[in-house]
Design a protein that fits this description.
alpha/beta; Rossmann fold; six-stranded parallel sheet; globular; binds NADPH dihydro-nicotinamide-adenine-dinucleotide phosphate; binds N-acetyl-L-glutamyl 5-phosphate
């Protein structure tokens, strides 16, 4: 049994960590922080969590005693919190973008802020970095779009069958966090599909970094906001470097992800509702046209495999628990 703290527990990914950890047999949540709800019962802010006695507390990184802390805080905030935890010997899974990049320059260029505390971290996509995650003190949990996009393209890159991708993703509104904005205001985003940051989204270099670990990859990434609460559906297009049929591509994906506990190669086209609430990534389609354009589709829940579920998967790997502990249940279709 380990003790766990959650900094930023009043937000959406913090709430999802609390929900998922209720069924984790190796973890006790000892601290859930919030500055605005200090002293308020967790169940008041997260109404689905009625069986916890936890109250939010406004404590900083210097006061939390735990074996591991999840920092479910915005980018820019995590870099002020994580170093103190690491100095105190507490292992950390950070859900923000602050520690995802190999080099500080790329972070500063795409996030537009100075990084005041770079640290060594392991990029927390278990399908690529499982061994390094196991011994890491700081795991940088991947972004939600990068999780779906990287998993949709990775087998083709590793098998040297493709090196250029056009990636088009549709995201649910919970990806924007608990605070409403003009983009996420109901009259604006309901009955609507809204492309945003069409060539400049900060997840572009993150996807490129991880897909280019073996061979350099060129890509374009465009997110769209759609009126659903949870989920990211990614459609990745590529012109294959080899003449392959749909069934052959599907076999490559099945072989590549064989044994992966949370990736499923599915018949037909994946849908958001099949993964909702779960840590699964469904991948499918694999259609190829006369020009050797292949289309791969992936579906994840942005708050689970795209954030808190993957963070728990990483914690399980770090502490030698069963990788699926607390996460081995299917989605909520329909
Ligand atoms: N939503 C998603 O689908 C995904 C989110 N992420 C990333 O995970 C992180 C959390 O996201 P999400 O839960 O959506 O965000 P939210 O905005 O919903 O929640 C973040 C919480 O962090 C707390 N917080 C904000 N600033 C600070 C600070 N300076 N110090 C301490 N606590 C702070 C706030 O609580 P309070 O004000 O009460 O203290 C807030 O409720 C972000 O970095 C986000 O980019 C990653 C993948 C997917
Ligand atoms: C709908 C919506 O706004 N989505 C967010 C997803 C960001 C996210 O959650 O990822 P990071 O941890 O990298 O910030 C966005 O596009 O910025």
């Amino acid at each position: 049994m380990i003790s766990v703290g959650i900094i930023g527990a009043s937000g959406y990914t913090g709430g999802e960590l609390l929900r998922l950890l209720e069924n984790h047999r190796e973890v006790e949540v000892v601290s859930a922080t919030s500055r605005q709800y200090s002293g308020v019962p967790v169940s008041r802010v997260h109404p689905h969590l009625q069986d916890t006695d936890l109250k939010f507390e406004d404590v900083g990184a210097g006061e939390i005693d735990a074996d591991l802390v999840f920092t479910a805080t915005p980018h820019g905030a995590s870099m002020k919190i994580v170093p103190q935890l690491i100095e105190r010997g507490i292992r950390v899974v950070d859900l923000s973008g602050d520690y995802r990049f190999d080099d500080t320059e790329t972070y500063e260029e795409w996030y537009g802020i100075e990084h005041e505390s770079p640290l060594d971290a392991v990029y927390g996509l278990p399908e690529i970095h499982r061994e390094e995650i196991a011994s890491a003190d700081l795991v940088a949990n991947p972004g939600c779009f990068p999780t779906g996009a990287i998993l949709a393209c990775l087998p083709l890159v590793y098998e040297k069958i493709a090196d250029t991708f056009i990636i088009d993703s549709k995201t649910g509104v919970s990806g924007a966090g608990v605070k409403p904005t003009a983009l996420t205001h109901y009259p604006h985003c309901s009955d609507n599909v809204i492309p945003y940051n069409v060539t400049g989204h900060r997840h572009t270099p993150e996807i490129r970094q991880e897909l280019s670990r073996l061979n350099p990859v060129r890509l374009s990434f465009t997110p769209h906001l759609v009126p659903v609460t949870r989920g990211i559906l990614t459609t990745a297009h590529t012109f294959l470097l080899e003449d392959l049929k749909q069934g052959e591509i599907a076999d490559i994906f099945r072989g590549f992800y064989d044994g992966e506990p949370f990736v499923r190669v599915v018949e037909g086209i994946p849908g958001l509702s099949a993964v909702r609430g779960s840590n699964f990534c469904h991948i499918g389609c694999f259609d190829v046209d006369d020009n050797q354009r292949a289309v791969i589709v992936s579906a994840i829940d942005n708050l689970v495999k795209g954030a808190s579920g993957q963070a728990i998967q990483n914690m399980n790997i770090m502490f030698g628990f069963r990788e699926v502990e607390g996460l081995d249940f299917p989605g909520m279709y329909p």
